[in-house]
Amino acid sequence: MMILDGKATSKAIQEEIKEIVAIRMASGQKRPHLAAVIVGDNPASRSYVGHKIKACEFVGFDSSLIELPENIRQDELIDEVQALNDDQAIDGFIVQLPLPDHIDAQAVLEAVAPEKDVDGFHPINAGKLSLGIPSYLPATPAGILEMLDRYAIETAGKHAVILGRSSIVGTPMALLLSRNASPGNCTVTICHSRTQNLAEITRTADILIAAIGKPHFVTSDMIKPGAVVIDVGINRIEDSTKKSGFRLTGDVDFDAVVESASAITPVPGGVGPMTIAMLLKNTLQART
Amino acid sequence: MMILDGKATSKAIQEEIKEIVAIRMASGQKRPHLAAVIVGDNPASRSYVGHKIKACEFVGFDSSLIELPENIRQDELIDEVQALNDDQAIDGFIVQLPLPDHIDAQAVLEAVAPEKDVDGFHPINAGKLSLGIPSYLPATPAGILEMLDRYAIETAGKHAVILGRSSIVGTPMALLLSRNASPGNCTVTICHSRTQNLAEITRTADILIAAIGKPHFVTSDMIKPGAVVIDVGINRIEDSTKKSGFRLTGDVDFDAVVESASAITPVPGGVGPMTIAMLLKNTLQART
Asked: What is the model's pTM?
């Protein structure tokens, strides 16, 4: 059984990016610059954005954090997005989700210039992904592909079962794993809250990807022996023994499933760090 | 067992559209206008485009057929597309595929203004589909949804197995059937040329959609009794008893499968006519 160490893999990718940045600097090119927009004080969002900014520092990117108040109007937020679109210094930027309820997140994401949309959330980038045209890939599914690739996990002809159909993880993951590419060429099944006989389906999975946001939802009886299990869940559950009062746990009952899986990602330290590495990769490509 | 009569259903939709056009005319609005661009002399393409133009006449749309020579240069073709984008009289238009090999079809499709892209092939429309945002849906998968809906075939919680991952049928079909909508909410499995144990998978399908372009590929042993079988294939096979020298046949071995299916589309007269109806529906929406 193999633990898919997302932390170490992410670090390795970040070292590679750092080297590319150093080479670019030595040849007098521009330093990549990622900006992040954060609205309000959601602690999880602040933590994610903090990790991204720290990773920028590590690889030698410039970074900017644009902090906006919870009560910002939608048109003001879109003005901020336009300013970043127009700012020649910024190669790529993200708008950290979720946004407050009074803001139409889709309108904000569509305001991002597609060529600076390093999250891959703009419809034109989602469409290119769907059509198999090169584009910025959303960081979480891209990170999973990269991990499968680096651990040399065979995907062609395998049955991948995806739990969750969100537009940022489940759906693009299904598109990427089903396409004629490597990694790829999986037979893909998309499951969700309306799926019947779920365990029967997951037990046919050679590769199981859990992205539903329910702690310990995937139990050992749902796994085919030898399956590769990828846990996208990052759930905060109360834990009075922790200083923060909570700990992070995945969608998979790791301790039970680890016995029968051939490979598994831990939480934390699995998919999460890969996501950051892929965001940096997209930003590196964004330089024009 | 129920034959899903695409011809009659398409006719019914066209009657509805005809009525809407008549009402618009009576209130002094503009008559919808669909244009079709065809390059070269592919007989199947000519036949498809001819059906589309004829359907426009039936419902009361204006139509234009732009016939271009096989040896047109790509930049000349894109100029034609731009002219249609700029032409206020044209509400929507299609570029009939396939295009000659010397032309980059993707570049041509991306030149179509998204708001006139009634085939739904532009990346921004494909992206909206993937993200669940209203957009022009590609006509074939939209026609299948419409048929399932009009025949009141329950889809929620059902297992839909799709044979084929093309960007115009298999992939958008998977996205549409998996989303949280009605019809929709299927557990969806995408199969393709690299799928292993295909018959084992198709035998678990409540709804089986064949879109692989191989005559009579789906045989009766691949069907679960009671399944709904949708045949997207339009294959020309030689037939010396026909004046044309060929006949059309689907991807499904109809005569054998009809025994065990609960509902099935014939070829011809199934999905094909629905495609035309949905193109007209998109054009009706396109009016600005």
From this structure: 0.96
